[in-house]
């Protein structure tokens, strides 16, 4: 995803192996500038051609899918493909909670000849939408139609899932009839908490409770200049640059894999501001780029898309890091790029230590000098989210293998060659008038030679690709995962885009961070997740994978190799079980998961995160069966383990408590549900702020529980 597709990596790797050893050695030691220069001849026409023709396996196929996807409008009306496109989009819209628009898409799917055998699927979706909108009578009518339809199609393998779903919806319907939704306005009341925010004088977007420090060991880092309380906002930054990751298609309803492979992030979010798309404005040139508004489309075109538009397939092939690198350079503008690249040449030639180079003030930074002289700060000692700051992020050149650098170099050179061949050089160099460029330069023919300006661009891009290895920040959104049975919402942060946040990058990494980051569009907010006493460093975990660090730490068995092998086996078994869940074989899944648990008990400690994960999966299966007590029992075990690893106020614990609240809510365990909601609320509002969707959901559950009629309360 981040790096070029396997096919392109394979090609460059073979090319690398075939090079003269002496040349390889020279390249390994080359500066970024020399790297770009000496690779002049390498992307031989044929390689580039293959790449551009899109005949390699990995991404061009994906690219083709992505390109065809915007789909709905391009397919012949009345064809099943169109109807399936609409149906797919409706699934995504339901997941995102856009019920009205979802109903519109379902109606469109029906009118375009949606395949009859798949009809129950969208009828279920329709009923769920209607339920969510509180249109109970309509929902009931649909459920009746459905029941008779499902009764007729016994042969279908997925009918079990649908029956289950149907019965769940009926239960929900009954609940709703007894307990009408609280009025929407009631939400307003909970948003009262205002936050204390005072911006730092020296670091744009940072709180005044932080200060910027520098030492040899930790590089630049942020320290609490006064005591910080949990939940306090520490940093608010707009991404300098971000590129939407097309991502995988969303995991949607069980048993629909064959049809619902459609919607990806690229269809659901604005390619500029990352807002959710309801009605999109597609780019006229490539239907791939989509925007929330004409305004976003125009600004994106002006700033970068006029250059990127025709490069679409190449950029998808080369991966999102290359794409971010190109967009960074386009946003910065050629003048600034060329100034900083030039400055990096005139400084010392020490490539290993880019932080030491190109300082605005010549003296080395020391503690007494404040922020003046810290790399990336401007001449007033102010650190801002600027291209200059971004340019000075560490690229850890020495940590990348020579072959990896070779791959990156070929990739950025390939982009620059394509820019030159497509006559886009003027656009890259921000030269509005074409006449300036039409004649004088010698490079107008598509020779092997890049113009000096494009070499500068390539060098900057190479730097950015290498910087991304350790400075890329994922912009995530909460998306629902797993079979969408609706009873328990399993939300997890999913990567939406890859971005540079020059200020956020000042935070050093820790696997036990004292902050947590959330996103709104392309803006990041970092909040303290624990009390941070004055003088302590503020740390941040870049990884999204909750297993990133603690895997080996708590395993009981000896050899690490053996362990990782068994862990992999176990994870595969679990995955197999979960795949079965998608086709509705819950009983079998439970058996398999219990067996996994037993096996795992032989080599993992009871506190291992994976043990917790299995409990979580078991809870999920029981929830799909409507066995709420069982589900709650397993979730509680999972919570214990998660708490142990991530801490009782961590975001991970918050998510687990959120699930438990839903399970207890569904099982009418009123008093326990209320106390769980309260705990989840306390934790999640620290991480996501009091206005987040999750807090509102919790509030609604609470309101609903408090209005339950007495006869139900007595049952608990
Ligand atoms: Zn937008
Ligand atoms: Zn376009
Ligand atoms: Zn970590």
The pLDDT mean sits at 76
Number of strands: 12
Helix count, DSSP H or I runs of 4 or more residues? 28
Task: Give me the secondary-structure category.
Answer: mainly alpha
Strand order of the largest sheet: 3-11-10
Proper CATH architecture of the domain at 560-715:
Alpha Horseshoe
GO biological process, one term: heart development
Protein name: Protein-lysine N-methyltransferase SMYD4
InterPro entries: SET-MYND_domain_protein, SET_dom, SET_dom_sf, SMYD4_SET, TPR-like_helical_dom_sf, Znf_MYND
Subcellular location: Cytoplasm; Nucleus
Features:
single chain; 716 residues; mainly alpha; Serine Threonine Protein Phosphatase 5, Tetratricopeptide repeat; 3-stranded antiparallel beta sheet; globular; binds zinc ion
Could you explain how this protein is built, in words?
The longest helix has 23 residues, at 560-582. Mean pLDDT is 76; it is low at 53-77, 182-193, 250-261, 348-370, 433-446 and 543-561. This protein has 716 residues and is mostly helical. Helix content is 51%, strand content 8%. The strands form five sheets. A three-stranded antiparallel β-sheet has the order 3-11-10. Strands 4-8-7 form a three-stranded antiparallel β-sheet. The radius of gyration is 27 Å and the shape is globular. A hairpin with a 3-residue loop joins strand 1 and strand 2. The protein contains 28 helices and twelve strands. Among the domains are: 75-180, Serine Threonine Protein Phosphatase 5, Tetratricopeptide repeat; 560-715, Serine Threonine Protein Phosphatase 5, Tetratricopeptide repeat. Bound molecules: zinc ion (ZN) (3 copies). The site of one zinc ion has 6 residues, from loops. One zinc ion (ZN) binds next to loops. Its main location: cytoplasm. It is found in: Cytoplasm; Nucleus. One of its GO terms (biological process) is heart development.
């Amino acid at each position: 995803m981040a790096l070029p597709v396997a096919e392109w990596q394979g090609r460059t790797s073979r090319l690398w192996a075939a090079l003269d050893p002496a040349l390889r050695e020279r390249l390994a030691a080359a500066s970024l500038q020399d790297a770009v220069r000496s690779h002049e001849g390498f992307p031989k026409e044929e390689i580039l051609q293959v790449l551009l023709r899109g005949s390699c396996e990995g991404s061009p196929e994906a690219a083709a899918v992505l390109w065809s996807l915007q789909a709905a409008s391009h397919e012949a009306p009345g064809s099943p493909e169109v109807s399936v496109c609409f149906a797919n989009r409706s699934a995504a819209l339901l997941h995102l909670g856009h019920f009205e628009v979802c109903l519109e898409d379902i109606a469109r799917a029906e009118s375009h000849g949606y395949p009859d055998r798949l009809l129950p699927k969208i009828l279920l979706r329709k009923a769920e939408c209607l339920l969510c909108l509180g249109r109970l009578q309509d929902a009931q009518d649909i459920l009746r139609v459905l029941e008779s339809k499902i009764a007729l199609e016994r042969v279908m393998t997925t009918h079990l899932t649908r029956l289950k779903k149907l019965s769940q919806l009926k239960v929900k319907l009954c609940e709703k009839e007894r307990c009408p939704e609280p009025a929407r306005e009631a939400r307003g009341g909970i948003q009262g908490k205002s936050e204390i925010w005072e911006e730092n004088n020296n670091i744009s977007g940072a709180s005044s409770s932080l200060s910027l420090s520098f030492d040899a060991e930790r590089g630049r880092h942020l320290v609490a200049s006064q005591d910080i309380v949990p939940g306090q906002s520490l940093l608010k930054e707009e991404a300098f640059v971000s590129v939407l990751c097309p991502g995988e298609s969303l995991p949607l309803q069980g048993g629909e894999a064959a049809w619902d492979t459609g919607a990806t992030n690229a269809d659901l979010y604005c390619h500029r501001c990352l807002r959710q798309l309801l009605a999109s404005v597609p780019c006229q040139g490539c239907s791939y780029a989509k925007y929330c508004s004409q305004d976003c489309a125009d600004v994106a075109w002006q700033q970068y898309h006029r250059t990127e538009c025709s490069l679409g397939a190449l950029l998808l092939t080369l991966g999102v890091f290359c794409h971010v690198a190109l967009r960074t350079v386009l946003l910065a503008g050629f003048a600034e790029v060329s100034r900083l690249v030039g400055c990096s040449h005139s400084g010392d030639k020490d490539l290993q230590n880019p932080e030491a180079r190109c300082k605005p003030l010549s003296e080395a930074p020391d503690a007494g000098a404040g922020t003046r002289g810290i790399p990336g700060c401007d001449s007033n000692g102010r650190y801002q989210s600027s291209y200059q700051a971004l340019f000075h992020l560490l690229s850890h050149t020495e940590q990348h293998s020579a072959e990896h650098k070779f791959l990156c170099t070929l990739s950025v050179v390939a982009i620059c060659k394509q820019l030159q061949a497509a006559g886009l050089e003027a656009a890259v160099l921000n030269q509005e008038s074409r006449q300036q460029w039409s004649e004088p330069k010698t490079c107008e023919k598509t020779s092997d030679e890049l113009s000096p300006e494009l070499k500068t661009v390539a060098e900057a891009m190479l730097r950015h690709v290498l910087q991304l290895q350790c400075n890329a920040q994922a912009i995530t959104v909460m998306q629902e995962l797993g079979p969408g049975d609706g009873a328990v919402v399993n939300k997890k942060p999913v990567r939406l885009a890859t971005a540079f946040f020059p200020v956020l990058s000042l935070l050093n990494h820790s696997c036990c961070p004292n902050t947590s980051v959330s996103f709104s569009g392309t803006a990041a907010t970092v909040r303290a997740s624990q009390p941070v006493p004055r003088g302590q460093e503020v740390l941040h975990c870049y990884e999204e994978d909750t297993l990133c660090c603690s895997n080996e730490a708590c395993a009981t068995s000896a050899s690490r190799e053996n362990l990782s092998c068994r862990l992999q086996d176990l994870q595969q078994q679990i995955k197999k079980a979960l795949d079965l869940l998608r086709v509705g074989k819950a009983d079998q899944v439970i058996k398999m998961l219990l067996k996994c648990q037993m096996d795992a008990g032989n080599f993992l400690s009871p506190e291992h995160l994976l043990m917790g994960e299995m409990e979580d999966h078991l809870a999920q299966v029981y929830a799909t069966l409507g066995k709420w007590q069982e589900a709650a029992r397993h979730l509680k075990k999972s919570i214990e383990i998660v708490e142990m690893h991530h801490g009782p106020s961590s975001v991970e614990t918050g998510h687990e408590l959120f699930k438990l609240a839903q399970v207890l809510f569904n099982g009418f365990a009123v008093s326990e549900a209320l106390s769980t909601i309260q705990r989840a609320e306390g934790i999640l509002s620290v991480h996501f702020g009091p206005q987040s969707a999750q807090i509102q959901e919790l509030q609604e559950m609470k309101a609903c529980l408090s209005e339950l009629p007495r006869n139900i309360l007595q049952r608990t």
